[in-house]
Amino acid sequence: MGKYQKLKRAQILAQKEEEQMSDVDMLSEESSSDSEDEADKKEEKKESKWINRERVLVFCSRGADFRARHLMNDMKAMMPHAKGESKMDKSAPMNQIAEIALMKNCTKVVYFETRKHKDLYMWLGNISDGPSIKFLVNDVHTMKELKMTGNVLKGSRPVLSFDATFDKEPQFALIKQVLTQTFSTPNHHPRSQPFIDHVFTFSITPNHRIYFRNFQMCDETLQLQEVGPRFVLHVDKIFSGAFEGDVLYENPTYLSPTESRKIMKQKKADAFQQKKRQQDEFKEKKIKIEEAKEECYEDPVGEMYDTNLLIEDKEAQGIAKVIDGRIVKRISKKNTKMAKKTKKAKAAKAN
Question: Residue ranges of region Disordered (predicted)?
Fold first, then answer.
């Protein structure tokens, strides 16, 4: 009987162990399913918050000067949703920019193009359907160059402030939409921070130039301090596609840098020619004056007022003597005064 009792006990223990193992497997399956459900819920929450998935590609062409490169780095630091890329060759077609942006999973592009190592152009474009805008960039001042007192936290989201003139003309309204889509940081972006502490201002001048400034909001009273960078945009053309297509708008007041330099050189040349003309005219006048001096003219009045003639009248001789005596007295008085002054000066130096 003892052997059978031991076998029964072993069978009962084995059944209990099997039941415990099955319970553990069920709990592990339930916990894994719960964890998967929680992860799916978190991803859904992230996707629901991060709706705007705009990414901006910021890069430049080869041959860019130091100021253009520093401005590009400032733009990358200002926009947490920006991505970088190596420099593009100037000989490459502009259509290649759209392909590079698609490879980088970007929807917007900020491309800095330099010509003649001194003229800087900035292209803003939408890769999907366009449009793309070409600006001439003037008066560039980078953050390291300015050294302003303002300071902003990295990754913070900006407030975009536009001038009222952006809504008055259709080309500026289109530019406003492109600027907002490019410079505004998407809400709940992974690289962005959940606070706002600076302002991007875009203002239009009477000569249709767009001024960009970056200000820090210091406190709740909304006092502003400039951070930098600064630059001025002059609109050249607006294209319908992504760096290609029909020209939607062409600025009639736009002058290329080569044309403006040509006008300045022509003004300098005109000023030099005018100066040479004045010098030639002055020489001609001088020659005419010398010729006139050399010519002899009769002077009928000179004999009447000749002072070297002898005076024969006695009364006239007396008057002449009185006048000469007075002149001599005046000269002697002046000489005595000068002598006294010199004596005093010598005495003061000797003391």
Answer: 14-47
Residue 138 CB contacts under 8 Å (≥ 6 apart), including other chains? 209, 231, 232, 234
Rounded to the nearest 5 degrees, what angle is found at the Cα of 285, between the Cα atoms of 282 and 287? Answer: 110
Look up tokens 């000569």; give the residue: 207
Identify which of 164, 172, 137 has the alpha carbon closest to the alpha carbon of residue 248: 172
pLDDT tens sequence across 179-196: 999 999 998 888 888 889
Max Cα–Cα distance, the chain, nearest Å: 192
pLDDT in tens, 107-146: 999 999 999 888 999 999 999 888 999 999 999 999 988 8
In a 3-state reduction of DSSP, which class is residue 307?
Answer: coil
d(CA 183, CA 200): 8
Instruction: Provide the sign of the torsion angle of the four alpha carbons 209, 214, 220, 222, taken in this order.
Output: negative
pTM of the entire predicted model = 0.66
70 CB neighbour count, 10 Å cutoff: 18
